Amino acid sequence: MTAALDILLTRSLHSRLSDLDLDNIPFGKHYTDHMLEVDFLDGQWRQPVIKPYQHLSLAPSMAALHYGQAIFEGIKAYVDADGNPRIFRPLDNFYRFNISAERMQMPVVPEDIFMEGMKQLVSLDRAWIPNKKDHSLYIRPFMFSTDELIGVRPSDNYKFLIILSPSGPYYSAPMRIHVEEQYIRAAPGGVGYAKAAGNYGAAMYATAQARKHGYDQVLWMDGLERKYVQECGTMNVFFIIGDTAITPSLEQGTILNGVTRQSVITLLQEAHLRVEERPLSLDEIVEAYDQGTLKEVFGTGTAATISLIKELACRERELTFEVEKWQYAPAIKQKLMDIRAGRIPDLHGWMMPVG
Ligand SMILES: *Cc1c(COP(=O)(O)O)cnc(C)c1O
Prior knowledge:
This protein is of the alpha+beta class. It has helices at residues 63-67, 90-103, 111-124, 197-212, 259-270, 282-291, 328-340; strands at residues 8-9, 34-41, 44-45, 49-52, 70-72, 75-79, 85-88, 136-145, 158-167, 175-180, 217-221, 229-232, 235-241, 244-247, 274-277, 294-301, 305-314, 317-320, 351-353. Pyridoxal-5'-phosphate (PLP) binds at residues 74, 195, 231, 234-236, 256, 258-261, 300-302.
């Protein structure tokens, strides 16, 4: 039980909510009336403030713009059947945020600032949570360095913010995936496991090349041998081979420890599938495909929940799948969405009430 965090609140005088058709919104384009802002100055977290969503005024010399000390999280809030706001597993995102912070030599954010700040912000802007099937409020906590100094060293000063974006269903048609055997996303010893801003900029070139050739995303291979599959865009990946679901393991520190990944592992086990977290080679995948035992391939992440993969292009071949016939991925996706919307009981305590 955390004591109520003292947050200085300045309410917006005019809500922009009425300007928006909440039933018809794209992903990540609109923001709610308020935001949370907390500065880290001289070694201390200062007064948390919730104030009207507004631009920031930043120095051109601000360190984050030059050397990339910047991290973020992605979380979703929903309303349950009674209209109460609830957030999906935010504590897991809080822990991961500070793992990213540590790796980027940034200060850890105290739990009350992250969690209470988020809850109070979501509660204040609860009218912005779309109350429609598969809609949600996307929560974006982030932090960046703010020293005004063009010198390569960790900043002394940082800014932590949370902004909220009402979002429609993340429509994801079954994807065509290019297996990327040239460019890499991460390597052992690197920052692949951190939700660090630079990881995403670094991935854009290869992804754009794949898009040019008609693919939706790339499937990254390991950075040492280009032998083991890693993850896909901003999604972890699962392969169902025979009666086992296999997802790449985390111990190399090259992939994100996805909250959706963890949740899907739990739900697959409940569906009586064996789940293995281990290195999975492209050879094994192609071999299983040729033997007819590779049954389902899908990505998992907060934005789309589960995205089915209908084609994997690798080694001058196209591995194709009839996603309409799949048994597990669509069912798990439905179940996860039902838990989040409160349509079925939340047996694992994944939904945190906002109060
Ligand atoms: C955020 C992210 C994921 C998915 O994590 P979730 O917690 O499930 O949203 C997977 N891979 C990368 C690279 C990511 O940035």
